[in-house]
Amino acid sequence: MSALALGVTALASAVLVDTAPAYAATEELRLDFDATPTGQIEPGPWTTGCFADVATPGDSGCIAVGAPGAISRTTRPSGGGASPAIAFPASGSAVVQVPDAANLNPGSQDFTISTLVKVSAGQVTSGANLMQKGVFADPAQWKLQLDDGKPGCRIAGTGPSGAASLLITADASIADQGWKFVQCKRRGDVLSLIVGSETVASSTGATMTITNTAKVNIGAKGPGLSNNDQFRGAMDNALVSIG
Ligand SMILES: [Ca+2]
């Protein structure tokens, strides 16, 4: 294919992404954090209990902590009212874990990860993981992070030429800006990062198969207390869709 034809193809793909409802995505995970974790009472803080997965009935995201970590109740403005949300701890560790399942592995398909977060400057850390399946060292991973308050998206897997990975990061921190929508999406060979309503970073090279046996960890790498990349802000609506 000529460079010109390649350019036209890329342009056509870009237009398709922006304008056409061409992607019939299936929501595989939606934690809205509205209900009280199983076996717990409001308003917490909680060190155990599970949030129902609204998208896949029967699945759930369960709290796991390292003392003195806990998940606390907070709220987020929503329409004229408020939606229940969760806050991660100022010290110790806390995550919400969803067991490994085939429908949470995109494989070679398009996929989208998103959540709503609020972080203050005082809560910003150099490593803060929002949602991930797999860790950096694993052969396959998807991850939405907030290192230094800057949204970022990393994928790793098996590409056309073997092991492949891609990291895209926003230039600006979202600290002290209230609730922000952050989204990572793969459409064909393009990985994009959306903050609010704007695409703040994108890259080609996203063609790879992403499949692993890890749990989905929300809010940190896991419940461990060291090198945990603990997010210390507030969160609502953790979503994964595929297709
Ligand atoms: Ca909610």
From TrEMBL:
Endpoints of the signal sequence: 1-24
Residues passing through the membrane, by range: none
InterPro entries: ConA-like_dom_sf
Top-level lineage group: Bacteria
Gene3D superfamilies given in the database record: 2.60.120.200
Keywords, ordered alphabetically: Signal
Keyword Signal on entry: yes
Protein name: LamG-like jellyroll fold domain-containing protein
Organism lineage string: Bacteria, Bacillati, Actinomycetota, Actinomycetes, Micromonosporales
